[in-house]
Amino acid sequence: MTTGKFISLEGIDGAGKSTHLNPIAEWVRARGHEVLVTREPGGTPLGESLRQLLLHQSMDPDTEALVMFAARREHVLKVIAPALQRGAWVISDRYTDASFAYQGGGRGVSLAHLSYLESWVEGGVRPHLTLLFDLDPIEARKRVLKGTPHPDRFEREQDAFFNQVRAAYLARAAAEPRRFHILDSSQTPETIFAQVCLALEGLTR
Ligand code: TMP
Q1: CA 40–ligand 1 middle distance (angstroms)
Q2: How many other CB atoms are found less than 10 A from the CB of residue 119?
């Protein structure tokens, strides 16, 4: 059976990952592959409804983690796994690493609980490549304030929260250096995209 490739984009709010989503999709499409661009939380009708709750309704950190993973289960079953099975390349704006970074690092949810949910919910559907857009939270906040008139519940968090989120992302990357590709987001978008292309080339070999 042909299976496609799964790429996830990660980073703290304001790190600039979404800027690269469509150029990455174009790069893959130009090489003749079907591309599916999606996001988390979201990616299915139920997931998008849960996204609205997650971004705007305050809730307990464990509840938040469980709802993130509930949305993810729908996404994996209904969208990601079928696309990979038909040979498409799936590009997701965030996936499970975000739960380890935001709920684990940011909110202090038990990593053992998150690891259990990870293996239950993913069912072996793991990214082949994770692009981590890394940026100092102070710089990232400036970008969020410039581009977002109505920040959501995560975007309104303080620098200390984002320092923890960033550290948790970097810890995940250190634990899985083959899957992660860290990009220094303080560079120009052109320089970053050139580095993204090199990482994508690695997937085609
Ligand atoms: P976005 O703004 O990149 O679309 O993501 C929405 C927010 O959701 C972002 O602030 C990070 C947060 N988030 C988590 O806290 N845990 C998760 O597992 C995911 C996927 C996103």
Answers
A1: 7
A2: 10
Q: Tens digits of per-residue pLDDT, 17-76?
A: 999 999 999 999 999 999 999 999 999 999 999 999 999 999 999 999 999 999 999 999
Distance (Å) from CA 2 to ligand 1 centroid: 30
**How far does residue 192's CA lie from ligand 1's centre (Å)?**
22
* 40 CA: nearest ligand 1 atom: 20
How does pLDDT run across 84-119, given as a tens digit for each residue? 999 999 999 999 999 999 999 999 999 999 999 999
pTM over 0.90: yes
Nearest Cα to Cα of residue 13 among 116, 113, 161: 161
Are the beta carbons of 63 and 105 closer than 8 angstroms? no
Match domain 5-204 to its CATH number in 3.10.20.810, 3.30.830.10, 3.40.50.300, 3.40.50.720.
3.40.50.300
In the block, tokens 């810890």 appear at 171
User: What is the helix, strand, coil percentage profile of the chain, to 5?
Assistant: 55, 15, 30
Exposed, middle or buried: residue 100 (CB in 10 Å: 0-12, 13-18, 19+)? buried
